[in-house]
Amino acid sequence: MVEITQYKYKYELHLHTSQASACGHNTGAEMAKAAKEAGYDGIVVTDHAWGGNTCIDRSLPWEEWVRGYIKGYEDAKDWGDKNGLTVMFGLETGFEGTEFLIYGITPEYLISRPEFRTATIPEQLPLVHEGGGIVMQAHPYREEYYIPEIRLFPDDVDGVETINATHSSHLSKAHTGIEYNDKAIEYALSHGFHTCAGSDVHSTVMFGGGIMTREKIKESKDLVKLLMSDEMYLLTDGDRIYDKYGTLLKDYEG
């Protein structure tokens, strides 16, 4: 029996800033402040990268592109360091509408591997692993105008984002459809995948999604270790709480 009250730390694993994501509405510092005020202990900044909805000029030389891309993360981390919020670096890469969340690599590693820019989905996984990171397919069953078809890559990921709050939170105004999460849970279970959750939040209206843990996560390598371990953590969209396998523990009461 999972005792929810034991999981007192909350982390947002899917967050965008206006400094790198064209669809973002607020700066990294503003997003960090909003997350802290919403009760988060930490966030991962996962701005849209070169293959997705980035606002950084794709024609720039690789290092210059990365330096521009990480501004939202850097501003969020600066605010977090001063105000007691753990801020970690991540990415959301895109391949013709299919997107992946990357955790655990550093901006310095990204700069050192310009082949990321032209890597295919199968090539992405070993590149990320070499840098100590992991790849999770984001919202694999979402249906939207910018996603031409549902594509799954079970051999090229470490896990799946099963709970995405924009699909199910009562605060969400976009991508709604809790069935997208339900299908992702079934997919993860059928393949024995590791799982994660996030809000996919683009503004300072925080949905409350993410993971809940018993211990504090201090840095990216701790997050990767937890997500890839057998240790229990919880998934939430801000309204509902699930165990890491997708079993519903607490439903929406609003």
Describe the structure.
By secondary structure, the protein is α/β, with parallel strands linked by helices. It has a single domain, classed as Metal-dependent hydrolases (TIM Barrel). The chain has helices at residues 28-37, 62-69, 71-83, 107-112, 121-130, 165-168, 178-191, 220-227, and strands spanning 9-15, 42-45, 86-95, 98-103, 134-137, 159-164, 194-198, 209-213, 234-237, 241-243, 248-250. It has an eleven-stranded mixed sheet with strand order 7-6-5-4-3-2-1-8-9-10-11. Helix 1 (28-37) packs parallel to helix 3. The longest helix is centred in the last third of the chain and has 14 residues, at 178-191.
Largest sheet: 11 strands, mixed
> What's the domain count?
1
Strands of the biggest beta sheet: in what spatial order? 7-6-5-4-3-2-1-8-9-10-11
At the fourth level of CATH, the homologous superfamily is Metal-dependent hydrolases
* Residues in helix, %: 25-40%
Number of helices: 8
C-alpha termini separation: 24 Å
CATH architecture: Alpha-Beta Barrel
Give the helices and strands, then pairings.
Blueprint: E1 9-15, H1 28-37, E2 42-45, H2 62-69, H3 71-83, E3 86-95, E4 98-103, H4 107-112, H5 121-130, E5 134-137, E6 159-164, H6 165-168, H7 178-191, E7 194-198, E8 209-213, H8 220-227, E9 234-237, E10 241-243, E11 248-250
Parallel strand pairs: 1-2, 2-3, 5-6, 6-7
Antiparallel strand pairs: 1-8, 3-4, 4-5, 8-9, 9-10, 10-11
Helix pairs in contact: 1-3
